[in-house]
UniProtKB/TrEMBL annotation:
It catalyses: acetate + ATP + CoA = acetyl-CoA + AMP + diphosphate. Keywords: ATP-binding, Ligase, Nucleotide-binding, Phenylpropanoid metabolism. InterPro entries: Ac_CoA_lig, ACAS_N, AMP-bd_C, AMP-bd_C_sf, AMP-binding_CS, AMP-dep_synth/lig_dom, ANL_N_sf. It comes from Solanum pennellii. Belongs to the ATP-dependent AMP-binding enzyme family. Pathway: Phytoalexin biosynthesis; 3,4',5-trihydroxystilbene biosynthesis; 3,4',5-trihydroxystilbene from trans-4-coumarate: step 1/2. Residues 65-125 form the Acetyl-coenzyme A synthetase N-terminal domain. CDD domains: ACS. PROSITE patterns: AMP_BINDING. This is Acetyl-coenzyme A synthetase.
């Protein structure tokens, strides 16, 4: 049974806000503040949605939110089954909509939603939308690294491409429950590959195509895929990255540890590298273009239980070994679709662009699944946001008439320091709603995003969530209530956040402490691959009875939540999670490094930077070259090629 609900502070506040008038006029108050009204504190700074946006929104007022929120936490079964019924289920779930044990003291942690229901997320993304008349709607606009290189695909075409790949995978022996590793850049083939796996019940594990060969090998060894899908190379900005070579070394390394992958399906990314130039292992490597087109464009769906695994995504923890976060099908499907719809106030006419890579959870939930489940048109961008110049994002926004733009504070801050003129030369009038994710957005970056990018017209959904949560947990709903720059506002439907002190005691009202959640939500991860014990100790043991997020948080007098960053051994650099232990173990593998201790330091643009204290082996003199080689060992061994210089390439290479 659910814990008794105390009417938490935020609800009381939303209740008291219910009488507030809305209207665009109120936005000027923010401008007054920016112009120097020093009397109000940051927390008091309210930004109201425009009347038009509000009245047309799915959730148009604090009362409406309150009604829906109350139902979602008092009657989760009713609330979520009503929503789940909008999807296609081959068989309906059993009597019990969800089952949870959230308390380690009561036994094994267990979360289940819609158990017994048979469905398929690929079917719900594609076939279901096509059947309801969206077949000719554009599913994906693809924008290449080089301006002018682009293409697009309708829902019908996407389904055909997914089915061809799904048929191929079946043909080479991939069955329900088998793992497939995907190491691809942001080509259309990346979401295609994810959906093809889902269609046949295979578990995809996308590895960000910027991770090193060692990191890739580590993941391959952990999940033992039947097939690895990659491409030969990719252009990012002015650089070419030879992905196939990285895969070759990862496959060699994993084979040495006894994990042999039979098939390496390689897409020829012609704009970056010709086939003929690519190193090839006969018998194992297969060109995508040589085989896939021969397969039928229809493919039967594998109906899976709502609790069958959908994907594994590795994320950094406080020890050296990455954690394989496991998400299952039904709850994740319902949750990503619903959060997408409400947090971005999605309408069928919207054009949506999320700048995240599918190698991260944001790309899983809010490039691929959430939007496609809603039948949305999604922009997929291969390149770097500062190439060929720092106006590229707005060029893309104008080109595709993007109405919802979702990005990370680090990008906002990096563009902010380039100056407004790179923004104002573009129209951006299609923009309606903005979004932020990955790290706390500081109020000054929030204001610049709001005023300069969104012309003081577009609410910002500052979505707090994690790889583990599957979807948004604390997020504004654009039309529902006034925002405060830098606050993620209130919890999403069904989410019961609590702030606890160091003893694990819940604190009420205005306070600061550790952010926990006290009951399950459909999108929650179910375990860590192969290590349920680590799942329980990492997330459920610090504060028994709660899921512990690893984040610090405060709640202001009005009930708004303000995320303050990680409180564990995880650093957040440009929105990317990095375990200090991962960096330390890379450093000590350097022959001249005896000991290392790593901490996060504040960084103006990246949010946090990595600071390493290193003890050098006795007798070795310190030199700048040694420092550089220590940096390189970290970069090559553990981290991504892009981290730290992804969006700052021009200025920060070598730092
Ligand atoms: C941080 C990314 C403040 C937080 C979706 C969390 C945020 C970690 C926000 C998860 C936000 C994410 N405000 N902090 N809006 N969004 N974070 O797993 O520290 O890559 O624990 O998921 O990012 O990172 P992950």
């Amino acid at each position: 049974p659910r814990k008794n609900l105390t009417t938490s502070n935020h609800l009381r506040h939303v209740e008291s806000m219910a009488h507030l008038p809305s209207g665009a006029g109120r936005i000027t108050r923010l401008n007054a503040l920016i112009l120097g009204d020093a009397l109000a504190s940051e927390e008091d700074d309210l930004v109201f949605p425009s009347e038009v946006l509000s009245t047309q929104a799915h959730v148009s007022s604090p009362q409406k939110y309150l009604e829906m929120y109350q139902r979602s936490v008092h009657d989760p079964s009713g609330f979520w089954s009503d929503i789940a019924s909008e999807f296609y289920w081959r068989e309906k779930w059993g009597q019990q909509v969800y089952h949870e044990n959230f308390d380690v003291r009561k036994g094994k942690i267990k979360i289940e939603w819609f158990k017994g229901g048979m469905t398929n997320i690929c079917y719900n993304c594609l076939d279901r939308n096509i059947e309801s008349g969206k077949g000719d709607k554009t599913a994906i606009y693809w924008e290449g690294n080089e301006p002018g290189l682009d293409s697009s695909m309708t829902y019908n075409q996407l389904l055909a491409r997914v089915c061809q790949l799904a048929n191929y995978l079946k043909d080479v022996g991939v069955h329900k429950g088998d793992a497939v590793v995907i190491y691809l850049p942001m080509l259309m083939e990346l979401p295609i590959a994810m959906l093809a796996c889902a269609r046949i019940g295979a578990i995809h594990s996308v590895v960000f195509a910027g991770f090193s060969a060692e990191s890739l090998a580590q993941r391959i060894i952990d999940c033992r895929p039947k097939v690895v899908i990659t491409c030969n190379a990719v252009r990012r900005g002015s650089k070419i990255i030879y992905l196939k070579e990285i895969v070759d070394s990862a496959l060699l390394e994993s084979a040495q540890k006894g994990i042999v992958t039979d098939v390496c399906l390689t897409y020829e990314n012609e704009s970056a590298m010709k086939k003929e130039m690519t190193k090839w292992t006969k018998g194992r490597d297969i060109w995508w273009q040589d085989v896939i087109l021969k397969y039928p464009v229809t493919c039967d769906v594998e109906w899976v239980d709502a609790e069958d695994p959908l994907f594994l995504l590795y994320t950094s923890g406080s020890t050296g070994k990455p954690k394989g976060v496991l998400h299952t099908t039904g709850g994740y499907m319902v949750y990503t679709a619903t959060t997408f719809k409400y947090a971005f106030d999605y309408k069928p006419t919207d054009i949506y662009w999320c700048t995240a890579d599918c190698g991260w959870i944001t790309g899983h939930s809010y490039v691929t699944y959430g939007p496609l489940l809603n039948g949305a048109t999604v922009v997929v961008f291969e390149g770097a946001p500062n190439y060929p110049d720092v106006g590229r994002c707005w060029d893309i926004v104008d080109k595709y008439k993007v109405s919802i733009f979702y990005t990370a504070p680090t990008l906002v801050r990096s563009l902010m320091r380039e100056g407004d003129e790179h923004v104002s030369r573009y129209s951006r009038k299609s923009l309606r709603v903005l979004g932020s994710v990955g790290e706390p957005i500081n109020p000054s970056a929030w204001r610049w995003f709001f005023n300069v990018i969104g012309d003081a017209r577009c609410p910002i959904s500052d979505t707090w969530w994690q790889t583990e949560t599957g979807g948004f947990m604390i997020t504004p709903l654009p039309g529902a209530w006034p925002q405060k720059p830098g606050s993620a506002t209130f919890p999403f439907f069904g989410v019961q956040p609590v702030i606890v002190d160091e003893k694990g005691v819940e604190i009420e009202g205005e306070c600061s402490g550790y952010l926990c959640v006290k009951s399950s939500w459909p999108g929650a991860f179910r375990t860590l691959h192969g290590d349920h014990e680590r799942y329980e100790t990492t997330y459920f043991s610090a504060f028994p009875g709660y899921y512990f997020s690893g984040d610090g948080c405060s709640r202001d007098k009005d009930g708004y939540y303000w995320l303050t960053g990680r409180v564990d051994d995880v650093i957040n650099v440009s929105g990317h999670r990095i375990g200090t232990a991962e960096v330390e173990s890379a450093l000590v593998s350097h022959p001249q490094c005896a000991e290392a201790a790593v901490v996060g330091v504040e960084h103006e643009v990246k949010g946090q930077g990595i600071y390493a204290f290193v003890t050098i082996v006795e007798g070795v003199p310190y030199s700048d070259d040694l420092r550089k080689s220590l940096v390189m060992v970290v970069r090559n061994q553990r981290l991504t090629r892009y981290i730290g210089h992804q969006v700052f390439q021009r200025r920060e290479v070598g730092k």
